[in-house]
Amino acid sequence: MQGATNYQSRCFARFARQRSSTYGSAQTRGPNVLETSQRSPSLILDFSPVCLAVVILEPVSCEISCALTLLTLPVIRDIRLDKQKIEPKDHQMQKAQISKQSILMDADRASQIFWQEFMKSGIEDAHQKSLFRAMLGDPILRPLIELRENGATSIEGALLLKSIGFLTETVIAIRSGPLSGQKLICVALTRRAVNCTSRWRMRIQNDRDDQNSLDFLKSCIRNYLVIDRGAGIAVTEAVGKVALDLFDERILGRLAALDYDLLQFDLDIYSNNVSESHWLNCEALWSKGSKLPRTGAGIIDLCYTW
After folding, report:
1. Residues 48-57: pLDDT tens digits?
2. CB 243 within 8 A of CB 251
3. In whole angstroms, how far apart are CA 290 and each of 214, 218, 283, 293?
4. Residue 60: Cβ within 10 Å count
């Protein structure tokens, strides 16, 4: 039994030397390569299972098992290399497919990160930032304030307000101009909507650390006229009349009906016959009753930017 063990050790040592000369030194092969004949066979992790089985069962066959192992390892290595050549290509195809499927999710995440960076840089006070985040988290507050301060909001915001009874529709008969004989559908806030903003104001007034966060939100909204998110916009009667007087196709061409998914007029929304300054000059006709100054009246187009 002792002779068999010594014989196995010599076979293992010779196999290690042969393998080292064939595949590289022990330093390049890593810690699993047998370096001396003194290592215990139970710690040899890099040997072929065929070799180990033959040595353990029959000491006389150690030379044959070493030879089989040397013949088998190059084949195993080639199989592994071939597998490595195939896997990256399949992985790239799968990754490309997943990337296409996650385009909406990735775009939402990227825009949210961009949004957060702007918010952090624009609001330094931590408490005001918290209140501002809470106000923007209210899905009805921003479109509600947009209609009160600007007389216009996106069709998405208008539909949301209408669904909870905060919005009604009015119709204007157009009696002159290029659209004479047609009708203009406008919107108006209900008393419930006005009470909603009053509740927000009362909530903020009870906060001793507040720095006029609601007025700050209003001043931000008064920096533009309306935001078109792709489906169109809705306007109050005051804004609708000014748009007709100016014949601003950028506004009239974006007006959408709340009851069906259609634009009210087929006009050029990229017409430049009316500028932002025209709206600022007649601000008293469409944006009044606010103590805050107006700093802009532009149309923000978020639909065709990509």
Report:
1. 444 443 334 4
2. yes
3. 13, 9, 11, 8
4. 10
Are the C-beta atoms of residues 299 and 250 closer than 8 Å to each other? Answer: yes
Q: Which segment of 188-192, 253-257, 301-305 scores lowest on mean pLDDT? A: 301-305
pTM of the model: 0.67
Place of tokens 């306007």: 235
